[in-house]
Design a protein that fits this description.
- 42% of the residues lie in helices and 19% in strands.
- It is of the alpha/beta class.
- It has a seven-stranded mixed β-sheet with strand order 3-2-1-4-5-7-6, sandwiched between helices.
- The two termini are 36 Å apart.
Length: 265
């Protein structure tokens, strides 16, 4: 997986940018303390860490991909960028006031070990804010119609909310709140369901290259057929029927805010 992100990271910033709305929500849910230190785990090329640092936060960014970290360092040399994994950060115990994890938990090799590590480095009463999607939510993506095997493989990779909550609880983290996110038409970060309202985005190779599901789980034949069918449906107008068929109230992604339970915030 590290090698995959080294490959994706080469041109990652062409299409992956911090979305202003999502950054606002991360910041508000983090409820940062004055002069605190914050960890962005699985920081990638540092887009969200960079934006949070611009808001006055002291940030540590950790990622296993050297290519991603090189891009992050070029973007902002004033952030402490470090190589590491969620399961092993090499940070001191109780050394950070809060943690953000943006579309990364599904890449962790050991969810329980990772949350135990997050709880270890988090100060009492500190918050962890996760942005992720659940299997239930992903089954509601209209992408399933065009790329069924790719989406099935991606869904199987994604931990259910109940699994995340159980791993958190065992680590000493308690979920304080969850918030559904429905992809907005003006989304600036081209992650998997970025084309919910703009199906034409998936025709762009650079968009697909920046999405790990397309880069790692898709096969060329399915992608070619899916794109051909999508183009046909866009031209005929049938895409509107397909999109309507998948409309639901489950949300497309989810914010999960947890608090280290051994002290009140």
């Amino acid at each position: 997986m590290d090698a995959l992100y080294d490959k994706i990271g080469i041109n990652y910033n062409e299409t992956r940018k911090a979305d202003a709305y999502l950054c606002d929500r991360l910041f508000q849910k983090l409820a940062p303390r004055p002069a605190g230190t914050y960890l962005d785990i699985g920081c990638g090329t540092g887009n969200y860490a960079h934006e949070l640092q611009k808001r006055g936060l002291k940030i540590i960014g950790i990622d296993p991909s050297r290519e991603m970290l090189d891009k992050a360092k070029q973007k902002n040399p004033h952030i402490s960028w470090r190589s590491g994994h969620a399961e092993k950060t090499l940070l001191d115990a109780a050394s950070v006031d809060g943690i953000t994890a943006f579309l990364t938990t599904h890449q962790w090799s050991d969810l329980r070990a990772a949350f135990a590590e997050m709880a270890r480095v988090l100060k009492p009463g500190g918050r962890m804010v996760i942005f992720t999607s659940t299997p239930v939510q992903m089954r509601g993506y209209w992408l399933n119609h065009y790329f069924p095997k790719m989406l099935e493989d991606s869904i199987n990779q994604m931990p259910a909310l109940e699994v995340v909550e159980a791993a958190m609880h065992k680590a000493g983290l308690e979920i304080a709140e969850t918030e559904k996110y429905f992809v907005r038409p003006d989304l600036e970060d081209a992650f998997l369901y970025c084309g919910k309202h703009r199906p034409h985005l998936y025709f762009r190779p650079e968009i697909r290259r920046g999405i790990s599901t397309f880069a790692a789980l898709a096969n060329r034949e399915e992608v070619s057929k899916g794109l051909a069918d999508l183009e046909k449906d866009i031209n005929s107008g049938d895409i509107e029927k397909i999109i309507a068929k998948y409309e639901n109230g489950d949300g497309d992604y989810l914010f999960v805010t947890a608090v280290k339970k051994d002290a009140a915030r």
